[in-house]
Known about the structure:
Radius of gyration: 21 Å
Mean pLDDT: 75
Low-confidence stretches: none
Number of helices: 2
Largest sheet: none
Structural class: mainly alpha
Strand content: under 5%
Shape: rod-shaped
Amino acid sequence: MHSLLSRPRNRWLLGIALLTFGTGVTVKNVISYPVECVPDIPSEKNILQRT
Length: 51
């Protein structure tokens, strides 16, 4: 019985999965929603969405 990582296709899939996971973690830590843009009053959000 062969190991799961002995086949090139499985190695590529594992590599892509690790790359995707690493990218997601990096993006979550680097890109954040600016606090200055968050409306204080919920009605402000509706006004902004209409314009």
